[in-house]
């Protein structure tokens, strides 16, 4: 009898995880509230003092959203951007000391000389006191080499911490540009890498490849495909996810100098079918993902929930947006902010929109951006 009860309990969990997509948002624990609409393919979200938001639009515009949801005119002072395909103005982060220095960091697809090729770049600027323009613009990093491609820019920025304190360094995820996937295994280029730099653009001397012949010193980890989600856990550990091809999206915890395998190992396959390379899923010297999705969910955006705004059961959960299926994935771990994935639940399926970014706001609530020509900033209120 005990065995039967345990079996039924397990079966119930499967039913909830599988069929939760059909429940209204309130029954899934959240009530979506539109903060602002009329955004064109919004990509990155940052929080400003006074309940304001900073949002990027992929075609090359930066907007400030007031607490009442009113959109500002485009912020002036952006550099030239190679908008097209998956490229454009992508992630944005407000400095942890923004209230004092008004510094923002943003990444974008940077055109090459005379329009020859493009690559992901990271810049720093000061947002003017009236929020109308960027000043003191400085390019901190430019991915090398530039290639003629409109795909796989990566481009999530994370301000790192050591021992719980901001340490003046930034992580930046970089795609392998699709046509150059083999580059992800070579250390003489930035394709398919995560880089780590100081906030002034210099290279931290404790980076794993500093002083190594034939390796670029900015590189933190390699063997990545196209990472469009990254965050810090409360313990300071760096988490990210990356797109697989047809299946094989991964969650990874990139360690200094580690190789995450793409394209030698993958749980995905070529578009249309067929193995990639030798069809391996593991190989000595290459890291296994913490979690992977087959079929692909096309993940974008990533945030840990640290607040109790949705109840204790949600605290410590990881949240990831799905572009392909249009839901927010609530991921429960075997221990808060760490451990293995034990359960996933689909939220916001009734929105019917691609989820591009997810963040926890200063108010402890979750916010998402929906990616389309009339994109929205949505606040998730606790369900009633």
Give a structural overview.
With 384 residues, the chain is mainly beta. The chain has one domain (2-382): TolB, C-terminal domain (Neuraminidase, 6 Propeller), CATH 2.120.10. The chain is 6% helix and 40% strand. The chain contains 2 helices and 23 strands. The protein has helices at 2-19, 98-101, and strands at 30-39, 42-48, 52-57, 61-65, 89-94, 103-111, 118-127, 134-142, 157-162, 165-173, 193-198, 219-222, 229-232, 238-242, 249-252, 291-293, 299-304, 318-322, 327-335, 338-347, 355-360, 366-370, 375-382. It has a 4-stranded antiparallel sheet, with no helix packed on it. β22 and β23 (375-382) form a beta hairpin.
Percent helix among the residues? under 10%
What's the number of extended β-strand segments? Answer: 23
Strand order of the largest sheet: 1-23-22-21
| Count of separate structural domains | 1
Euclidean distance between termini CA atoms: 36 Å
Largest β sheet strand count, sense and barrel closure? 4 strands, antiparallel
CATH architecture: 6 Propeller
Q: Which fold name corresponds to the CATH topology? A: Neuraminidase
**Mean pLDDT, as a whole number?**
93
Name the helix and strand elements from N-terminus to C-terminus, one letter apiece: HEEEEEHEEEEEEEEEEEEEEEEEE
**CATH homologous superfamily assignment:** TolB, C-terminal domain
Find the structural class using helix and strand composition: mainly beta
Segments where pLDDT lies below 50 for 5+ residues? 1-27
- SS strand fraction: 35-45%
Please write the CATH class name.
Mainly Beta
Number of helices: 2
Radius of gyration: 20 Å
